[in-house]
Amino acid sequence: MKIGVFYGSTTGNTGAAAQAIKEEFDKKQPGMVELHDVKTADLKSMEGYDLIMIGCPTWNVGELQEDWKAQFPSLPNVNFSGKKVAIFGVGDANGYINNFMDALGILGDVVVQKGGELYGFWPTDDYNFVQSEGVVDGHFVGLALDDDNESHKSRPRVNAWCQQLMAELGL
User: What's the domain count of the chain?
Assistant: First the structure.
């Protein structure tokens, strides 16, 4: 399986999560994952992967990170039809309790509208927030990380999510 991780990272937290995801998948099969900084990536290249992972932090009051915001108009041009997609994000649940992980929902909606299938839904139980556009039926539509308040939980969450994805995908 060929996996492309497309991430935007201003402070480095989402980039670190992307690297941790690559390391976890490399344990299964080295070289399976290719990382792409969305700042310079051609989003159409997503179409060449069996699994597309999208990493985006939620900024300010439910906004996309600046590189994703710049690329967002191009996202609907990607043919996600029949594609497997997993989303992960970083946010601040304490500071933004009413829109924690909104970026997951904003990006996930486009993927689904363009024919993609989301994998890696993640439970909301271990988080303290009020509402999020990134939640469907009581689960985040992807992995939620809070490095501002719970950085000690990030790596265990990444590892567990990767194991979950591998099981969902039959790897």
Answer: 1
